[in-house]
Amino acid sequence: MSQSLARALGILIELGDGPRNLDELAAKAGVHKTTVLRLLRTLEAERFVHRDGDHRFHLGSRMFALARASLEQHGIRDVAAPHLAKLNESTGQTIHLGVLEGDPETSHTVIYLAKYDSRHAIRMYSRVGLPMPLHATAIAKVLLADLPAPRRRRVAESIEYTRFTENTITSPDGLLAELDRVAEQGHAMDDAEHETFIRCLGAPVRDASGRVVAAVSISVPEVVLDRDGVLALLPDLLATARAVSADYGYTEGNPE
């Protein structure tokens, strides 16, 4: 890598942490200000950086366009795949990735985008591409909990509340209360609400804006682990969701 290219990339990485003035960038690079200014002028001409009225430099519009293009070329399923495979391998349990499908303002459909089967004889009936019950699955709860309150209520009031087990939520008010808990605690649980012998935990995957764009879940049969045993897997699940989010552009501490 050429020295100029390395310095230019270093400038962009530094600006990724926030605006900087010329003195700060020169000190970070360890070179004279004229050298950094020459690089900044080139980056500015190509819209990789821009300068504000206080002579502080920021990442420019070309950087955001490239970031969007990168994410479009590498969809969330591809980004998540190595992390989901690792979680599946380390736990031996069924791992799902799910998304809210269709128009983001009107869609009421959540589908499985990826599935990694467990090593156990008992298998879940879920299939990639099929919709899941919005009121009885951990992934759906995570995705719905991130919606604005008015839309969350519209969705809750539109659902047909099929009772799958004695634990299934059966009313809009019950689901809304559950979604409030999910939003507050940052994860969801399907406590044998869809299938009597399966418990699932779900965690959010966020994009660069902090919006929840997908959810990861881990599902465990009752005969393999009891409720406490499933909850003990939560740290691993949350770590996986954070790793996927980071690779998808999210930075811890972004506004949510």
Automatic annotation (TrEMBL):
The keyword Transcription regulation applies. It comes from the Bacteria. This is IclR family transcriptional regulator. Residues 62-250 form the IclR-ED domain. Gene3D superfamilies: 3.30.450.40, Winged helix-like DNA-binding domain superfamily/Winged helix DNA-binding domain. Residues 2-61 form the HTH iclR-type domain. The keyword Transcription applies. Keywords: DNA-binding, Transcription, Transcription regulation. Transmembrane segments: none annotated. Pfam families: HTH_IclR, IclR_C.
